[in-house]
Design goal:
By secondary structure, chain A is mainly alpha-helical. Chain A contains seven helices and no strands. Classes of the chains: A mainly alpha, B mainly alpha. At the A-B interface, helix 1, helix 2, helix 3, helix 4 and helix 5 of A face helix 1, helix 3, helix 4, helix 5 and helix 6 of B.
Chain lengths: 171, 180
């Protein structure tokens, strides 16, 4: 049953998405494309693009994947699955976190997670740009995007628009 | 600064609806504008603290923020209402855009444009990571963990279900020794 499969797959992603959606993007791509075959690698980067360009949380890529896999019900199930377990955990931990404010373990965990989030988010970008074999054109666009993001103070939406324009000529 | 939390569930719903509907190019700036500047539900410090917690928790950061803030103000009902308000319009936008894309996906230029947007989006991820990584530059143990995660998950395509627990355990060990 594909809806149950969507619910379990995205439910697991929800629990391991420390640092938010970017950090879990490489695992999502691996599961959706390589393990489940719900989309191709090329289609995955396109669904990712749509979710980035639309207003709202970038987590909505899961709805597009769910929709491609199982129609409208799939879109709803995937979104609830990726938010649900994390939501329950947040609900629970919010007060606990306050209580352990001074605990050395809390500080240790916070410090331990920071480099993991950096490494995993980098992986997400790398995986998206490497659908099957490394494609220099995708890398060129991504490199331009990184440079613009780090040097210019503009809405990222402009960077996405520029990427699309370059893509029209290059890809 | 005087702050007044939302008094009615409808206020909470409309506030999160406004965040979701307008957040082109990233949700957090709009969340700040809506809740801190326009509606004055939270002080800037309180906002930063809440978002900090939600960034630490697994799952979508702003989704978690809707749960935590909804709970603070109205309990379970508040969490559900804030979450639905946040997601309602973006869900419709993204599905509409997805349907539109599928109509046109046969066209090679359309596919090229959308893939270009995706590559730029991937670049934004890497840019965000580099920005976060600046704070770690002088800590060799942290850089080692960054490299290990990138090589295993990004290049090696190992499952995060294996990499995450192992690297988190190493990270906590490093942190307890004061290396991070």
């Amino acid at each position: 049953m594909i809806l149950a499969d969507l619910a379990i797959t995205f439910g697991v992603l929800s629990i391991i998405a420390f640092g938010g959606m970017p950090a879990v993007m490489p695992e999502m791509q691996r599961l959706v494309v390589e393990v489940k075959g719900w989309t191709t690698a090329e289609e995955f980067i396109q669904l990712f693009a749509i979710a980035q360009a639309a207003p709202g949380p970038n987590v909505l890529i899961v709805s597009l994947v769910g929709w491609r896999a199982a129609g409208f019900a799939g879109a709803v199930v995937a979104l609830l699955a990726v938010c649900g377990p994390a939501a329950v955990l947040s609900w629970w931990i919010a007060d606990l976190w306050e209580r352990f404010k001074e605990s050395p373990w809390r500080l240790a965990i916070q410090r331990a997670i920071a480099p993991l989030v950096v490494g995993l988010t980098l992986s997400g970008g790398y995986v998206l740009c490497t659908p099957s074999t490394p494609d220099w054109r995708l890398w060129a666009i991504a490199a331009g995007s990184v440079t613009a993001f780090l040097t210019l103070k503009i809405n990222p939406l402009w960077i996405l628009a520029a990427g699309g324009t370059v893509g029209a000529f290059l890809l | 600064m005087d702050v007044t939390p939302p008094r009615k569930l409808s206020e909470l719903f409309l506030g999160f609806l406004a965040i979701g509907a307008r957040s082109f190019g990233g949700v957090m700036p709009w969340a700040h504008r809506t809740m801190v500047e326009e509606r004055r539900w939270l002080t800037p410090a309180d906002f930063a603290e809440t978002i900090g917690l939600c960034q630490f928790l697994p799952g979508p950061n702003i989704g978690n923020a809707s749960i935590v803030l909804g709970k603070r103000w109205f309990g379970v009902t508040g969490s559900i209402v804030a979450f639905l308000g946040l997601m309602a319009l973006p869900f419709i936008w993204v599905m509409a855009l997805g349907a539109l894309y599928l109509e046109w996906a046969f066209h090679p230029t359309v596919r090229a444009v959308v893939t270009g947007v995706g590559a730029a989006g991937a670049g934004l991820f890497m840019g965000t990571a580099l920005k976060l990584g600046r704070a770690l530059v002088r800590r060799p143990a942290a850089l080692m963990l960054v490299a290990a995660c990138f090589l295993s998950v990004g290049v090696g395509r190992f499952s995060m279900l294996i990499v995450l627990p192992v690297s988190a355990a190493i990270g906590v060990f490093f942190a307890r020794r004061g290396w991070l």
